[in-house]
Write a structure and sequence with these properties.
Layout lengths: L1 H12 L4 E5 L2 E7 L1 H9 L4 E5 L3 E13 L4 E11 L7 E14 L4 E14 L4 H18 L3 E5 L2 H9 L2 E9 L2 E8 L3
Helix pairs in contact: 1-4
Length: 185
C-alpha cells in the first residue's frame, strides 16, 4: 500500500514532462518545445566579441523542432556595434544543433552546432565578415558545453525509483524525447 502511494506521488511530481509508459514501466520522457524555449530564453541576451572593436548581441532566441534531422533549430536576432561599425546594425542568424545527455549534472546539452544562415542589414562587407567570425567563434566555444535544459529532480524521480536512466535523445514533432533505459542487470 505504501509503495502504491509513493508511486502515485512520484507520478504527480513529473509535472509537465510527459512520461510514456509500457508494460515495463516508463520508457521515455518528452519535453515539449515551450518548456525548452523557456529554459533557453532565460540564458539570453548574450554578448560576444570585443566592446573596444566589435560586439555582437545575441537576442530573442526562438527554438524549433527539426525531427527529420533529429536536431533543434535556433533563430536569433542580432545587433552588431562598436567602434569598428560606428553604429548599430541589426540582423538574424539561424543555427541548428544536436543534443546529448550529461549524467553528472542531469542536463541536455547542445552539440554539433552549425551556423546555417547569417543576415545583417546594410553592413559593409568587411564588417559583415567580422560579424560572421564572431558568430562562428561563439558557436565553436559553445560546441561542448551549452546547457539547453537541466532535468529537475521531479523529472527523474520516477525513473530513479524504477532503476531507469536517460539514454537516447530523439527530436519528435511533440518535443524532445529522452529514452529511459534500465540500470538493472
Amino acid at each position: 500500500m505504501h509503495r502504491r502511494g509513493l508511486l502515485a506521488g512520484t507520478l504527480a511530481l513529473l509535472g509537465s514532462a510527459a512520461c510514456t509508459t509500457g508494460r515495463g514501466g516508463p520508457r521515455g520522457m518528452t519535453f515539449p518545445l515551450d518548456r525548452l524555449q523557456a529554459a533557453v530564453a532565460a540564458r539570453f541576451p548574450q554578448r560576444v566579441g570585443t566592446p573596444d572593436l566589435l560586439e555582437l548581441a545575441l537576442l530573442s532566441p526562438r527554438l524549433r523542432l527539426l525531427p527529420e534531422a533529429n536536431r533543434l533549430g535556433l533563430q536569433l536576432d542580432l545587433q552588431a556595434g562598436g567602434p569598428l561599425t560606428g553604429r548599430e546594425y541589426g540582423g538574424a542568424a539561424d543555427v541548428d544543433f544536436g543534443l546529448r545527455y550529461e549524467a553528472r549534472d542531469h542536463t541536455l546539452r547542445a552539440t554539433q552546432l552549425r551556423v546555417l544562415a547569417l543576415t545583417m542589414d546594410a553592413l559593409p562587407p568587411r564588417t559583415a565578415q567580422l560579424v560572421r567570425q564572431s558568430l562562428n567563434a561563439w558557436v565553436r566555444q559553445s560546441l561542448a558545453e551549452v546547457v539547453v535544459y537541466r532535468l529537475r529532480a521531479q523529472d527523474l524521480a520516477l525513473a530513479d525509483g524504477l532503476g531507469l536512466q536517460p539514454g537516447a535523445i530523439t527530436v519528435t514533432p511533440e518535443g524532445v524525447e529522452v529514452q529511459l533505459l534500465s540500470t538493472l542487470p
